[in-house]
Structures are given as structure tokens and as C-alpha cells.
Amino acid sequence: MAKITLSNLAHSYFPKPTSEEDWALKEMNHVWNDGEAYALLGASGCGKSTLLNIISGLLEPSEGQILFGDTDVTHMTTTERNIAQVFQFPVVYDTMTVRENLAFPLKNRGAPADYIRQRVQTIGQMIGMEVELDHRARGLTADAKQKISLGRGMVREDVNAILFDEPLTVIDPHMKWALRTQLKELHQQFGHTMIYVTHDQTEALTFADKVVVMYDGRVVQMGTPEELFETPEHTFVGYFIGSPGMNVLRARVEGRRAALDNGEIGLAGAYPALDGKVEIGVRPEFVRLTDAPDGLPVNVRRVEDVGRHKIVRADYFGSPINVIVPEGHEIGADMTRVLFDPAHVNVYQNDWRVAPTGQEAA
User: Fold this and answer.
1) What's the CA gap between 260 and 279, in Å, rounded?
2) Which pTM was predicted?
3) Domain covering 247-354 in this structure, CATH number
4) Which of 5, 41, 150, 178 is the most buried (most CB within 10 A)?
5) pLDDT (tens digit per residue) in 267-293
6) Rounded to 5 degrees, what angle do the CA atoms 287, 320, 306 make?
7) What sign does the CA torsion over 126, 182, 211, 78 have?
8) pLDDT (tens digit, 9 = 90+) per residue, 155-188?
9) How far is CA 65 from CA 25, 29, 60, in A?
């Protein structure tokens, strides 16, 4: 296992990049701790697979270094880096049994037969295929083959890291939760450094100790699920994490007040006068539908009952606002205003979160 350090790392697929848009990965500096589970989360094309391929050694970065512990592995092959990788589509040997597929990485490294037998039995049990260990892989479902791929990626105990590139894409939805749970249990049991690439926030939030959110070739935030929810450092994080995502409204912010199109709200902290694109962000969970006259007037378009709560879809002078109403709370016809919880309103300047000064406005 290894701590992974990305030092001044950047990559372009162009031989001579001339503008910021030419860089698939903008310069980044990060330390990923030994033994933690990370999820690389972002929309298609944001750079997450490029970053994973650089970490694995399938791609050499245009600039910067990658260190495993204190060792510079930037120019090392995947084999030299001693990592395991599980890809989006299952890679199994159809002519081999499940047992032989799982044992293959260990046999290649000359592990003792008794250890191979014990280890394969353990992994077979963990992926729920103990009964099928002596069945040939040919004819198994795509779900079963991907479970073999997952097991083969985790069968070695001596790897520096295990990398997963959208490994549950081909898995039926009802199986995904069980496999995510098994991966989490395996991580807790064996303590490997794990990096899991996905565009699915549910996968990321349920698997990872820390989620690495990428947008336009940058890591815009690395944090726990709670940190991503409570204090999104970039408007994209607020939009991408949560269902529905964070409400974002243009505003003029100064001191402890934010002036909107036709109203004003209080803020929990004080801010200097901000220029550029200034916005406030508040999650639907911290918006309350009300008939109180001090609320912001909204036009309620529809109400969606999703069982555990209701989602009110409204707009405020052309800007959409979503409100989550807890189960059992009535929504009256005269409730056409909203109130924001000041403690959960974030302020953004040019898409990046601005921290309050904590001092009273002059």
C-alpha cells in the first residue's frame, strides 16, 4: 500500500499546448493517503479517466510527478508500480474456472499453492461466488464476470493501490448496491489504497472515505461526503452532488446581506463587497416553503411526491428554486414564498466559494 502524491501534475494530448483549453488535466497538487478509499467523480470528459490512467502508468503525464510513498513512479510501467486495476468491462479468461481466474495474478507471481488456495477461497466468498468457484467462466452472466474481475483485482494483498474504472457499469441495478457494499467491506478488512472512478454520485458517496470531484480537467474539491454536501467549494459540486442539486442565484453581497432580484436575505457571516459573477447557493434541504411575508416570492410550478419527501419545483423571477418538504408536512395553496436557512447559505465569486470573515459589516 502507498501514499500517492501528485506534484505539479498536468497533461495535454496536444504535443504543443497553447491555451488552457488544450490541457485535459490542469496543474494539480494532491496527496492521497495510504489505505484510504477515494472516488473520482465527475461528468464524462472531465478528466477522471485520464488521471486514473496516469496514476496506473498507462499514460505518462506531460508535466509533473507521481510518487508512491517516497518513490518517483512517473516513468515506471504499470507492473513496476505494483497496482491492480479493474476496468469498465469484465476481463476474464472464458476457458478457465472462476477459481483459476482468481488465482491467476497470484500464480503469475509465484505465490505458494496453500496461500493461493486460501486466498482464492476468501475472495470467492467475499464476492458471493464460492459455490461457482469450479465453474468455467464461459456462459456466466456479465454480472458474474465483472464480479470475477473485481475479485481478481483484490486477490493480491501486496499491491500499492487498486484502481477501479467505472467497474459497475455493466452490472444490473439491483446488484450494484450489494457489490458496492462488498467493496466497502473489503476495503475495511484489507486496508488497500483504492481509487474508484465513476460518474454516479451514489456510487461515489457510498464507497469512498473521500470524494474527488473533477470539473473541466481540475479537481474542484476533495472531501468527505458531508463536506461536499455542507460546503461545496465550487458551484459545480453543489450542482452535481445532491438530488436535486444546490439552488444557485445571482446576488449582490456585502456585509451580512445578499440582495437578489426582488428581495434580500440574511447571511450567517460577513463578506466584503464582491465583484465579478457573485452568486449564493443553498441546498433544497435548507429552503422552507412559507406564507410568511418576509419570504422571497416564488412561482410554484409543480410538486413531486417521491415517498420520503416532496420536491417543490418553483422559480424566482426566472431562476429555478427547488424545495424539499419533509414527509408529513402540508403544502398550502397560500405558501408561495421561501425562506433560506442563513447558516447553510454559501457565497460564490466566479463559481468558487468565498469564506465569510466572521466579522460584523461596517
Assistant:
1) 9
2) 0.86
3) 2.40.50.140
4) 41
5) 999 999 899 999 999 999 999 999 999
6) 60
7) positive
8) 888 888 889 988 887 777 777 777 777 777 777 7
9) 13, 10, 10
